Amino acid sequence: MTSSTSAYADHLATLQARTATALERGGFDHLVVASGTPHTQLFDDRDYPYAVNPQFKHWLPLTRHPGSWLVVTPGARPKLVYLQPRDYWHVVPEAPAGEWVSHFDIAVIRTPEEAMQHLPKNAQRCAILGEAQSALGKYAAFKPNNPQPVLDYLDYHRAYKTPYEIAMLRQATRRGVRAHRAAERAFRAGASEFGIHLAYCQAAGQDATELPYSNIVALDTHGAVLHYTELDRIPPKAARSFLIDAGASHAGYACDITRTHAHADAGEFQALIDAVDAAQQRMCDQVRAGVDYRQLHLDAHLALAGVLRDAGVITVSPEEAVATGVSSAFFPHGIGHGIGLQVHDVAGFAASDRGGTIAKPDGHPYLRLTRTLEPGFVVTIEPGLYFIDMLLEDLRAAGRGASVEWDRVEAFRPYGGIRIEDDVVCTDGDPVNLTREAFAAE
Questions:
Q1: Beta partners for 80?
Q2: Longest Cα pair distance anywhere in the chain, in angstroms?
Q3: Where are the beta strands (DSSP E) in 285-414?
Q4: Over the stretch 208-234, which tens digit does the pLDDT of each residue have?
Q5: Residues 390-424, buried b or exposed e (16+ Cβ, 10 A)?
Q6: What are the boundaries of the signal sequence (predicted)?
Q7: Residue 255 burial by Cβ neighbours in a 10 Å radius (0-12, 13-18, 19+)
Q8: What is the Cα–Cα distance from 185 to 162, expressed in whole angstroms?
Q9: Using alpha carbons only, how large is the chain's radius of gyration in Å?
Q10: Which residues of 273-285 are buried (b: 16+ CB within 10 A; e: fewer)?
Q11: Distance (Å, rounded) from C-alpha 124 to C-alpha 383?
Q12: Angle ∠(284,287,293) on CA atoms, nearest 5
């Protein structure tokens, strides 16, 4: 933990207040959160990588502690039931330590079943958050019920980050930027996708299971695959372009950063990167209180269509390109999403803290956030332009072939695509771009 003790204390006070309201909404007395348990692979004796329950790490900077529990009762100190097993097969978690410890009553247990001694006696009065397999063995009555009114309230308000959370996101971003710098150096040195990935992990100080999502490390035409994660072991003879979408974690919080680089002699493609980058920074400046994120997405389509028109890739006006779906063939995903404890943070479509859904704009099925921005929101802004054969073929089939200058498409096709992504904080005034801030400091 790197933030001040007071910021963390204020963070917990905020969570306590939210929890009291959520429990009242659901008619419960206690919030009980399971940290989660490992999942064993089917037909094998190995576990999948453990992933902590986000509802648990919202309170505690503990991400590698399966079998533990958190109990929150309004008006009382929160209780942590901390599993520290007797085990000579695996590394056992150290005794609880750190700034956070003084804020909790802590009971250390040696077996998962011992948790029942420290949990509320009446499970019916508890909102128990977690996955089904967190149920405590023979205590079948004590199992997660995940009541919707409680989840609706807690998830909705998770969009409003506390100062402590912003500090954690800033630390994650610094780690991610350091790794992005190392990845670019590896690309310039002629490394393979796998080699670049290893350079990234080394610089981040995190392996693939610790990173918040699987790295996208794409050379040349692989950049046209939106979620490319294959990682070729052999580098191309002379890579033209490099798209990397990779994050890092800190105390349970994630950053999400994308950059696109061109080989030194890729002049026209570099100019296209520069144009997307300039447009992306203008989009980041739109992250302001009261802005409908859906409109920001639609504005991004118009801006990117203008980039395509200026580059001679499309023959129609930006307005016509958006209206006829031409822009979606080159920019097929959403402008971004909320980020925090999860890369794609929850409740992106929530109409209120009582549930409901804010619809996506017609024709834009992949947008992950439809709420109006408010101070405390942290969102990604990630416009992209890609040369994807399947989507371009669909465009021809739809009778829109005349809207495209196909010779220009062929010229850019070997470079795959471009995406630029920053994590941006919405405030009462100007937005704070955590990503650009970290790159400037690196």
A1: 70, 106
A2: 71
A3: 350-352, 355-357, 378-381, 384-386
A4: 999 999 999 999 999 999 999 999 999
A5: eebeebeeeebeebbbeebbebbbebbbbbbbbbb
A6: none
A7: buried
A8: 35
A9: 24
A10: bebbeebbeebbe
A11: 47
A12: 110
Q: β-pairing, 79-83 with 69-72?
A: antiparallel
β-bridge mates for residue 47, sequence order: 40
| φ/ψ (deg, to 5) at 344 | -105, 90
Rounded-to-integer distance, Cα 361 and Cα 399, Å: 23
Type of residue at 213: Y
Angle at 96 between CA 95 and CA 97, to 5 degrees: 110
CA angle 99, 100, 103 (to 5 degrees): 120
Burial class (CB in 10 A: 0-12, 13-18, 19+), 121: exposed
402-441 confidence digits (pLDDT tens): 999 999 999 999 999 999 999 999 999 999 999 999 999 9
| Residue 439: partners with Cβ closer than 8 Å, 6 or more residues away | 177, 180
Residue with tokens 């207040």: 17
Cα–Cα distance measured from residue 31 to residue 56, given in angstroms and rounded to the nearest whole number: 11
Measured CA to CA, the distance from residue 171 to residue 255 in angstroms comes to 9
CB 335 within 8 A of CB 381: yes
CB burial class (10 A; 0-12, 13-18, 19+) of residue 183? Answer: buried
**What does the pLDDT read at residue 1?**
42
421 marked as part of a ligand binding site: yes
**pTM of the predicted model as reported, rounded to 2 decimal places:** 0.96
Tokens 């790490």 sit on residue: 57
What's the CA angle centered on 404, arms 398 and 405, to 5 degrees?
A: 145
Residue 72: CB partners within 8 Å, gap ≥ 6?
15, 16, 19, 30, 31, 32, 33, 59, 78, 79
Question: For residue 89, with 0-12 CB atoms within 10 Å meaning exposed, 13-18 middle and 19 or more buried, which class applies?
Answer: exposed
Backbone angles phi, psi at 21, to 5 degrees: -70, -45
337 annotated to bind ligand: yes
Which residue do the tokens 């209780």 mark?
Answer: 79
Annotated binding residue 410: no
For tokens 């917990």, what's the residue? Answer: 12
